[in-house]
Write a structure and sequence with these properties.
It is built from 9 helices and 5 strands; from the N terminus they run βαβαααβαααβαβα. By secondary structure, it is of the alpha/beta class.
Length: 204
Amino acid sequence: MTKPQNIYIIGAQSTGKTTLVAALTTYVEQFHVVPDATIARPKIISEVARGVLQRHHYTAEDIVSSKTRALELQRLILEAQCQAEEAACDEWYISDRSGLDPLVYARKYVGVEEALALTQGLAWQHLQQKMKRGLVIVCEAGGEWLIDDGVRLMPKDRDAWLQMHAAFCEMLSELDIEYHVLPASISSLAHRIEFVVTKWEGRN
């Protein structure tokens, strides 16, 4: 059996991504969804942005207060995601976020041209090919779990939250990356896992 396709769980802020990644990991370990015993369980790529914020002394406020710092932050996040995926190149993995995230934030908070420039770099070109070969799940905004954790940049209201979701879908389409939207109406964690696993099994 060939290596299973990687899974990317992405989307706007506070859409249950990290919770879903953790639950998927437990599900895979408990139910052994990969029948070939020679294939290892997935590596988990945790959200790299938090580590970048801490290591380089950025805050969420920097994204909106300085375009220069905002762009540099997104570049660092893009590079960190690339390094994390490179480190897992011999394994299959479930990734909490993706290289697309910093592109979306760069476009929104810095500018279209600056985001386009990021796509010309080797980091994104490498990540884009991986995403095209993987399963990309976009968690839809609009559920009941919009919570400010004091770290991430939060949308100012529900409309801004939904606009961020639309920005993810729009950029995925522009970059010719297939994706599936996990509806916010599916609130049960068990059903959210089922949604992802069904899509994933259909591609392996």
